[in-house]
Design a protein that fits this description.
149 residues, alpha/beta, seven-stranded mixed β-sheet, 20% helix
């Protein structure tokens, strides 16, 4: 599926729509990968997801720290099925085994985790085949084409 968004408001609406279609897995974390060139809007998409999940913290790219974990609102929140939003940026990693430094295998085992991982192509040899894949492409008119696998 593909969706073209013209601006940040449309991207926010698309992020909300996508989030509404997610359902917690019983056998592990929900992993969503985000691909796209620098400046395509990967982190912006995660910020919009975080806002919808009620995260009050400032959401920024975890490029230099690799991972940021945000606690979610609990049983009364809009999307109570997840306890944590985990935002990972693999841009600086060489290989999937580098994810072990953040305990990636353990993170994947917890069904309370909603994980967004940027730059999956850097670590694809360590990602499960069941990951949801989002690709964001900048078009010539500065709109974005969001593709889902």
């Amino acid at each position: 599926m593909e969706t073209k968004v013209q601006n940040l408001e449309e991207m926010h609406a698309e992020a909300t729509r996508f989030l509404g279609g997610l359902h917690k897995k019983e056998d592990g974390a929900m992993l969503i990968t985000l691909s796209g060139e620098l400046g395509a809007g990967k982190t912006a998409f995660v910020k919009m997801i975080a806002q919808e999940l009620g995260v009050d913290d400032l959401v920024t790219s975890p490029t230099f720290v690799l991972e940021k974990i945000y606690s979610l609102g609990g049983p009364t929140s809009k999307f109570a099925q997840f306890a944590r939003l985990i935002h990972i940026d693999a841009y600086r990693l060489e290989d999937g085994k580098d994810l072990s430094a953040i305990g990636f295998d353990e993170i994947l085992q917890d069904p309370d985790n909603l994980i967004f991982l940027e730059w999956p192509e850097k670590v694809e040899n360590n990602l499960p085949k069941t990951a949801h894949k989002i690709s964001i492409k900048v078009l010539s008119d500065d709109s974005r084409l969001i593709s889902y696998d």
